[in-house]
Write a structure and sequence with these properties.
Elements (H helix, E strand, L loop, with lengths): L9 E2 L2 H5 L15 E5 L7 H12 L4 E7 L3 H7 L4 E5 L12 H7 L5 E4 L6 H9 L8 E5 L4 H5 L11 E5 L1 H8 L3 H6 L1 H12 L2 E5 L3 E4 L5 E4 L11 H14 L4 H23 L13 H8 L1
Parallel strand pairs: 1-10, 2-3, 2-5, 3-4, 5-6, 6-7, 7-8
Antiparallel strand pairs: 8-9, 9-10
Helix pairs in contact: 2-10, 7-9, 10-11
Keywords: ATP-binding, Lyase, NAD, NADP, Nucleotide-binding
EC number: 4.2.1.136
Cofactor: Mg(2+)
Length: 296
């Protein structure tokens, strides 16, 4: 059972998470759920690999990456555990909005869609997601520039009835909310709460300190993690962790709180080994299973 509601953010601790245990992962890959990852571009192909590995490390049974066709051969070799769906790219090397039918078709047997890692243009992201998200009825993690869809369509995920998580940094949250970065810095929980209530999503926002806020106003804070988590690709890993937890049956607030906490501890563990800066985002996923085992 989730912790009792509180009018102020609760600090996420190991004790809180142990009192909010994750569902039994099941005994095979089908029981642990399938994630479809809609991600990547010619400029950011690595985001696909980071998010996919993180989802698998968090316990998802299957991950399929839908990304631009020119990335698929390298991805299939780098991550043989990940299925691939090649998509047409536009002239700028981003996923063509015309690929929406292919994505929707592949989501038919999925439990979770993670959309946004590696997107580099908000207009292209909106055009693609307009052809995908209104046609789906499954759990969703909307990451990074994928948030532009909610800027354009604040009520565009209402049909998911709260089964959605938005993972953003403070600047992306400001864009989604239509406020200044300083407004987020002054009261990130309030701004996240406005977006959560308006769009009926659980919001995960932050860097060194993360905030998780639900549409009903429940809030948690994840402290620590360290400056090393500000490295490129770190957010892709966090989004993948959250998606993997959703796939194995966690409800959105639980996946967000657990995912944010596990991500922070991954950073701290690497910082203890190599220093507060200098470790790479691709080193984070390998830390996930041990941390989750300790929390269990």
């Amino acid at each position: 059972m989730p912790p009792e509601p509180s009018p102020v953010p609760r600090i996420v601790t190991p004790g809180l998470l142990r009192g909010w245990p994750l569902p039994d992962p099941g005994e095979d890959k089908n029981a642990r759920g399938r994630v479809v990852l809609l991600a990547g571009s010619r400029r950011s192909p690595g985001a696909v690999l980071l998010a996919a590995e993180a989802a698998l490390r968090a316990g998802s049974g299957k991950v399929t990456a839908a990304t631009i066709d020119e990335v698929v051969p390298a991805l299939a070799v780098a991550a043989p555990e990940v299925g691939v769906v090649p998509l047409d790219a536009n002239a700028a090397g981003r996923i063509d909005p015309g690929a929406a039918d292919t994505v929707v078709g592949d989501c038919g047997s999925a439990d979770v869609l993670l959309a946004g890692p590696g997107f580099v243009d908000p207009d292209d992201a909106v055009a693609l997601l307009e052809g995908v998200l209104p046609r789906l009825d499954l759990a969703l993690v909307l990451d990074a520039l994928g948030s532009a869809y909610l800027t354009a369509h604040p009520d565009g995920l209402h049909h998911l009835e709260g089964c959605a998580v938005l993972t953003v940094n403070p600047s992306e949250l400001a864009q989604t909310a239509g406020v200044e970065d300083d407004d987020v810095a002054a009261d990130p929980v309030a701004v996240a709460g406005e977006v959560a209530a308006r769009s009926r999503v659980v919001v995960v926002c932050g860097g060194t300190e993360k905030h998780v806020v639900t549409p009903s106003g429940d809030a948690w804070t994840v402290e620590g993690g360290g400056p090393g988590l500000g490295a490129s690709g770190s957010g892709d890993v966090q989004a993948g962790i959250v998606a993997g937890l959703l796939a194995r049956g966690a409800e959105p607030a639980q996946a967000a709180a657990w995912g944010g906490y596990v991500h922070a501890r991954c950073g701290e563990r690497l910082a203890a080994a190599v220093g507060p800066l200098g470790y790479l985002a691709r080193e984070l996923p390998s830390q996930v299973p041990a941390i989750m085992t300790e929390l269990s």
